[in-house]
Amino acid sequence: MYVSVKGGEQAIDNAHQWLAESRRGDTSVPELSLAQIREQLAGSVDRVMTEASLYDVDLAALAIKQARGDLIEAIFLLRAYRTTLPRFGYSEPLDTASMRIRRRISATFKDLPGGQVLGPTFDYTHRLLDFQLAVDGKAPTAPSAREPLPTSMPRVTDMLGQQGLIEEELADDSQPVGDITREPLDFPSKRDVRLQALARADEGFLLGMAYSSQRGYGRNHPFAGEIRLGEIAIEFTPEELGFPVELGEITVTECQMVNQFTGSDAAPPQFTRGYGLGFGHCERKAISMALTDRALRSRDLGEPASAPAQDDEFMLYHCDNIQATGFVEHLKLPHYVDFQSELAMLRALRQRHGQETDKEQQP
Predict the structure, then answer these.
(1) Hey, what long-range contacts does 177-186 have (CB within 8 A, 24 or more apart)?
(2) Per-residue model confidence (pLDDT) at position 122
(3) CA-based nearest residue to 225, from 106, 95, 101, 123
(4) Are 181 and 53 in contact (CB under 8 A)?
(5) Which GO molecular function terms does the record list (predicted)?
(6) What are the 10-residue block averages of pLDDT along the chain, 363 residues in total?
(7) Which H, E and C letters describe the chain, residue by residue?
(8) How far apart are CA 179 and CA 168, in angstroms?
(9) Could you tell me the pTM of the whole model?
(10) Cα 344 from Cα 337, distance rounded (Å)
């Protein structure tokens, strides 16, 4: 039972002003601009957009600034703003094969058609603090490639599919795609709903569950078929036109995992898929999403499912950091009436316990 909360209006106003002063910090230090956050804290901006389900780098930067860098609070702000926006339809499905590639790696095939593209990555850095960043310096410039990359690069899973070595993935147009922002979760869940929930799931929670599945809680140790980062066009088909028009480009990270599958009565031995996609450059999130997506498919594929990462109800009810924050942090709100009732009950139990103890000790 929650207790309704009332506070002194002046006290609340003062608390808000103190928070604003605390957010600003030392006024002798120049204030952060949205452009600085957008351009130099891109990892935080991308995470906030992905988990808020709203692609807008400027609004994500504003949310991060307003939240003093508290990313879950920033996600909360952006997701709340999202609910005020009108919905005018759904975009066409993304064709990631036509992505304008910035990074593309595969752990399964060394010599990919189109080549491996390292792009911007932490992978080969030494994880040593660069103290040069603590002082003003020249803006670094990366060298450009001599030749542009192909405009279309086939995906690794497409190559495996052409050889019949991986499960087919066919779109089912007979059923509408689920929308967790409009319909409550229902179990057993369908994969489209699961993928939506995983896309906006807390990155830390998802990483932990993906890690657990690799350590043996679900026997899920796949190959990274392909991870690609780049820009992709968003198309929308207005009802009055009847043909798709391009709305703009967004940056996404896609991950396709390749898992071994020993086969079942309905399917031969083959590779199966785990899929992850997020806004911006978010490899950790996309990989974790792909691992947990595959783990959650266990029951669909007729595999034993006993680990937490294979339990859709456990995963989908606990992966949302905004819902989790609301339920956990409500404990700091006043519970005076609830506590008084428990206090009265505890005193009565202690009194009864004392009386029973006295009776047992009487000769």
Answers:
(1) 177/90, 181/53, 185/316, 185/317
(2) 93
(3) 106
(4) yes
(5) alpha-D-ribose 1-methylphosphonate 5-triphosphate synthase activity
(6) 62 94 94 96 97 97 97 97 92 90 92 88 92 83 86 85 85 83 90 95 97 89 93 93 94 93 76 95 97 93 90 96 94 91 95 89 78
(7) CCCCCCCCHHHHHHHHHHHHHHHHCCCCCCCCCHHHHHHHCHHHHHHHHHHHCCCCHHHHHHHHHHCCCCHHHHHHHHHHHHCCCCCCCCCCCCCHHHCEEEEEECCCCCCCCCCCECCCCCCCCCCCCCHHHHCCCCCCCCCCCCCCCCCCCCCHHHHHHHCCCECCCCCCCCCCCCCCCCCCCCCCCCHHHHHHHHHCCCHHHHHHHHHHHHCCCCCCCCEEEEEEEEEEEEEECCCCCCCCEEEEEEEEEEEEEEEEECCCCCCCCEEEEEEEEEECCCHHHHHHHHHHHHHHCCCCCCCCCCCHHHCHHHHHHHCCHHHHHHHHHHHHCCCHHHHHHHHHHHHHHHHHHHHHHHHHHCC
(8) 24
(9) 0.90
(10) 11
Q: And the tokens for 203?
A: 């990155």
